[in-house]
Amino acid sequence: MASQEIEALTQALARLPGLGPRSARRAVLHLMKKRETALTPLLRALERVSERLSVCSVCGNVDTSDPCGICADERRDGRLLCVVEEVSDLWALDRARLFPGRFHVLGGRLSALEGVRPEDLSIDKLVSRIAAGGIDEVVLAMNATLEGQTTAHYLAERLETFPVRLTQLAHGLPVGGELDYLDEGTLAQALRARRPVA
């Protein structure tokens, strides 16, 4: 039997996304076996992040500085703004290094079932950023869910009076995807978004 402290660490790790009780136990065993090379550096990194963690006052990203590294990067094109639901979406898009502009994190998506209303998200802050000028295009990068598309539609209505180009991510067939493995929603979206063969 493990001590209370080790059991508490295991339970804490098991609450992380993607880790269940078994994976957490394996991680704890690894950390204990590799105390100097794994546990100690992990503890130091967690402590540093915990001390410096902040939410960017400009875009809503989570970083160890305010403004975050993305907002502070002068090489970014300030005329392009990509709106995402969550920080994880921002990180995924930024990791691809395909979008040269800046971001805005809503902090969720509209959902009548979950009681998430427009005032629960950072939509007013988004509108203020656009009203301040200097933005030519707003990319609505919402997830391809009913709530994500509802949020994109709501944002399009709120932003229609501003002189910005509104675009959204394409949805449909993934590269390398086979038709017989795709769900009906993905197939329907791919058919609706079909384009001429060049």
Write the layout of secondary structure elements.
Elements: H1 4-14, H2 21-33, H3 35-52, E1 54-55, E2 62-63, H4 69-72, E3 77-84, H5 87-96, E4 101-105, H6 123-131, E5 137-140, H7 146-159, E6 165-168, H8 184-192
Rg value: 21 Å
Give the quaternary arrangement of the chains: single chain
Q: Which regions are unreliable across 5 or more consecutive residues at pLDDT < 50?
A: none
Instruction: Tell me the CATH topology of the largest domain.
Output: Dna Topoisomerase Vi A Subunit, Chain: A, domain 2
Class by SSE composition? alpha/beta
Largest sheet data: 4 strands, parallel
Q: How does the overall form come out from the CA principal axes?
A: globular
DSSP strand count: 6
Q: Kindly, what is the distance between the CA atoms of the first and last residues, rounded to a whole number of angstroms?
A: 66 Å
H/E topology pattern: HHHEEHEHEHEHEH
CATH class of the largest domain equals Alpha Beta
Helix content: 40-55%
Q: Brief overview, please?
A:
The chain has 198 residues and is of the alpha/beta class. It contains eight helices and six strands; from the N terminus they run αααββαβαβαβαβα. The termini are far apart.
